[in-house]
From TrEMBL:
Family affiliation: Belongs to the ABC transporter superfamily.
Full protein name: Sulfonate transport system ATP-binding protein
Segments forming domain ABC transporter: 6-232
Record InterPro entries: AAA+_ATPase, ABC_transporter-like_ATP-bd, ABC_transporter-like_CS, ABC_transporter_ATP-bind, P-loop_NTPase
Native source species: Noviherbaspirillum suwonense
Length: 248
C-alpha cells in the first residue's frame, strides 16, 4: 500500500511580477521528517515557504497536506520567520496566543504556560518583548508557531540573527520540540552545519528556476554529534554542489 506523504508540492510556475521564481519544482515530505532547503539567495526558498503556508496563492501548481489543500485545515501549518516579529505592545503571553485573540481565557492561559515551559521561558508570560534577549524573543516566536498545534512547521532562517552559542541551543530546542509534538519540519537555512545537524534530508534549489538541483540524505540518526566525522564528506559534497551552482 502506498503511504501518502504529509506534504506534497508541485509548483509548475511561480512569478514575482515578470520574474520567474520557481519552475517544475516537486517535493514531498513524510510525516515526522525534518528537511532543510538550501541554495543561493533569491532562488525561491522563502517564496516556497509562503506558498506552503498559504500566504501566497498566485502560482500554477498544487499543494496538499495529508491529501488536502492547506486552507481546508486551519492551524495545520505553523510559520516562524527570521525575525521574531513580536508585537511590542503585547506581553509574551499575548504574542503567543495572538491568533486566538490574545489568550485571555483559562484554556489559552494554560496552553501559553505549557509552551513557555517547553521553550524554557517559564514565568515570562507578562514580560514585554523589549525585556527579552534575541534568543528569548525567538523562543517566544517558536512558542507562537506551536500555539495552534500544527502538524507542519515552516522555519525561514529562524536562528540567523543570534550568536553561535544561542543558535546551537535553539537548534537543539527545535529537535526536542519536533519529537515532542510529532512535527514535520521544513527549514530554510544558509548554514550547512545547521542543515547537517537538524535534517533527515537536505534539498538544494537551483540558482535559476528549475527542478531541485540536488538531494542529500543524512546517514546518521538523531541525536547527532555536531563534530561527527561521518558528516564531513557530506558537507564537502554539499559545498561542492553549491559552488557549482554559483559558478554557472
Amino acid at each position: 500500500m502506498t503511504v501518502q506523504p504529509m506534504l506534497g508540492l508541485h509548483v509548475d510556475e511561480k512569478h514575482h511580477g515578470a520574474r520567474l521564481v520557481l519552475r517544475d519544482l516537486h517535493l514531498q515530505l513524510d510525516a515526522g521528517e525534518i528537511v532543510s532547503l538550501i541554495g543561493a539567495s533569491g532562488c525561491g526558498k522563502s517564496t516556497l515557504l509562503s506558498l506552503v503556508a498559504g500566504l501566497d496563492h498566485a502560482f500554477r501548481g498544487c499543494i496538499a497536506i495529508d491529501g488536502r489543500a492547506p486552507g481546508e485545515m486551519p492551524g495545520t501549518v505553523g510559520l516562524i520567520f527570521q525575525e521574531p516579529r513580536l508585537f511590542p505592545w503585547l506581553s509574551v503571553a499575548g504574542n503567543i496566543a495572538f491568533g486566538a485573540g490574545g489568550g485571555h481565557s483559562r484554556s489559552h492561559a494554560a496552553r501559553v504556560a505549557m509552551l513557555l515551559d517547553e521553550v524554557g521561558l517559564r514565568g515570562y508570560e507578562n514580560a514585554l518583548p523589549k525585556q527579552l534577549s534575541g534568543g528569548q524573543a525567538q523562543r517566544v516566536a517558536i512558542a507562537r508557531g506551536l500555539y495552534s498545534q500544527p502538524r507542519l512547521l515552516l522555519l525561514d532562517e529562524p536562528f540567523s540573527a543570534v550568536d553561535a552559542f544561542t543558535r546551537m541551543k535553539l537548534q537543539d530546542l527545535l529537535l526536542r520540540l519536533a519529537r515532542q509534538h510529532a512535527l514535520t519540519v521544513l527549514l530554510v537555512t544558509h548554514d550547512i552545519d545547521e542543515a547537517l545537524h537538524l535534517s533527515d534530508r537536505v534539498l538544494q534549489l537551483d540558482s535559476v528556476p528549475a527542478p531541485l538541483r540536488a538531494q542529500f540524505v543524512l546517514p546518521l540518526p538523531h541525536p547527532r554529534d555536531r563534530g561527527d566525522a561521518a558528516l564531513a564528506p557530506l558537507k564537502a559534497d554539499i559545498l561542492a554542489h553549491l559552488h557549482a551552482a554559483h559558478a554557472i
